[in-house]
Amino acid sequence: MAGGRLAVGLGAQGINGGQQLVGSAFKLLKFEVQAVVHGMEWGGRRVALGKRYGKTRVRNKPTKLEHGEWPLAGRLVLVLVLYALYLPLSGYQPQHLRFDAGQYWELSLKFFQQGRFSLLHYDEPVRGYLGPLLVQPGRLLCHLTGWPALRGAQALGAGWAALLFGGAIPAAWRLGSGQALSGRRWLLLVGLGFVFWRDYFNFPLSDMPALTLLLLGLAALWRPHWGWTLAAGLLLAGALNIRPIYLASLPPVLWLLIRKPGRGLRHGAFAAGAALVLLPQLLINLRHFGQATPLVLAAPATKRALYLQQLTWGTAFQRVETSLMPEYPRQVLFADPAGQAALAVGPGAAFNSYPDFIHFTRKHPVDFAVRCARHVFNGLDIRFATPYLRELHPSGQAGLRVLNYVLLAAALALVLAGWRNRPRSQKLQGPATALLLALLLPCALAIPTAMECRFLLPLHLLLLTLVAASARPLAWLQQAGPGRRALACLLLLGWVWGCWQLSEDTARYLQPESAARRYE
């Protein structure tokens, strides 16, 4: 099963540092949640409150920090320094570079055979060549410094964190909303990303690099010059090679491409950029597996397709975490009793074909819908800030969960309010629609599978960005009457309580990894 996430806390030093960072960001921002979207554009028209200032209604004239976007170089350096300081203190040791992360690190050796380097030496069928290739700078750093492999992986992770939070997400927000992410709200986003996803950057996993390339590629695709379109082809093909599930993002990407003028030149530039990345994969597949496709193979020739196996696991288990704990070697599983009972009387231990799965789903439509809803919740229920679990109940876990539920409630309120207040005759602009579909379609494909929080990483970061960029709770509280405030508090308490109970219900069905063997 793909690597997990049942995680670990920071250790006393790391948690206190994270809490202080987020606390500082909240104070700097005077973080305000509002039931009306402020800062997003719906068909080019803004939802606004208060005194008019420029194109936006605000209560006070904004400061330069509030209104302006930080320079790209400043953002990259700040995030790079933050993670470069934190990751070596996160508590992970060289022996923890295992499972999927360890495999990616070792796969980078496949390019070197008989004393020479070649992309065509790579012969792993179900993992694209680009992910292991991007590990090479970390290997080189370890060779030059004598560091253990984990330190090289952490150096790479700090770089990916800087690119994701310093470059990719602000660029994608500008594409979707038509405006920059202001400095202090960007700081809040960085703090929230650190709180929930910080330890993922310790390991050379595929999730963060692939999402970073996807967002950068989408932003580049909307730029006017053909050179940006060439770069977009490179970046988007890279995301697809690293995580093949981003094939689901291809339709909105192509739709965005054909909406821009200069189609012939732009289409050629995009195809050329994509070919530079996908051609080596085509040659690898021809040389080692006899298959003429530029895509990563779904499975070795003698085994069941990986996605089909994931559908089986997703029916039998609601959630999966990867474990470093001796008492739960390799994985911690959370069973789905209803799914396991249905499999026992259905197709057997596993789905052998996609028609088998479709027939099973049509036979149990209500169970399937409920299962998918539970998977969405479990994917957004961040109980751990790490992909590799060192303890089931790390320090600070309760606060992490409550904060997550509150932020999910704020994001839901913003979406509902924005939808309600948008002009009926206007819709989301083309770039925003393409961006949302490119992020959400891969998440939709992951929902029926054995859920890991990283599978819904694009959705969770989208919600965090929406809250960080748009929420103004103090402004709403100042305008709402006592009755509405009381009702909002009751609804929020009910939401948090319900989420907590649902999460605890999932945790009741904890099982060791051995429980998954009968579904292989």
Quick recap of the structure?
By secondary structure, this protein is mainly α. It has helices spanning 12-29, 64-67, 72-86, 99-107, 130-133, 136-145, 149-177, 183-197, 207-221, 226-242, 250-258, 263-289, 306-316, 337-345, 354-363, 365-380, 397-421, 430-446, 457-470, 473-479, 482-507; strands at residues 41-42, 45-46, 52-53, 56-57, 112-113, 116-117, 317-323, 330-335, 388-389, 510-512. It comes from Hymenobacter saemangeumensis.
Strand content: 5-15%
How many strands in all? 10
Count, helices: 21
Give the low-pLDDT segments.
1-65
What is the quaternary state of this protein? single chain
Q: Can you walk me through this structure?
A:
By secondary structure, the chain is mainly α. It is built from 21 helices and 10 strands. The protein has helices spanning 12-29, 64-67, 72-86, 99-107, 130-133, 136-145, 149-177, 183-197, 207-221, 226-242, 250-258, 263-289, 306-316, 337-345, 354-363, 365-380, 397-421, 430-446, 457-470, 473-479, 482-507, and strands at 41-42, 45-46, 52-53, 56-57, 112-113, 116-117, 317-323, 330-335, 388-389, 510-512. The strands form 4 sheets. The chain has a 4-stranded mixed beta sheet with strand order 9-7-8-10. A two-stranded antiparallel sheet has the order 1-2. Strand 5 and strand 6 form a beta hairpin. Helix 1 (12-29) runs antiparallel to helix 8 (183-197). The longest helix is centred in the N-terminal third of the chain and has 29 residues, at 149-177. The protein is globular. The model is unreliable at 1-65 (pLDDT under 50). This is Glycosyltransferase RgtA/B/C/D-like domain-containing protein. Keywords: Membrane, Transmembrane, Transmembrane helix.
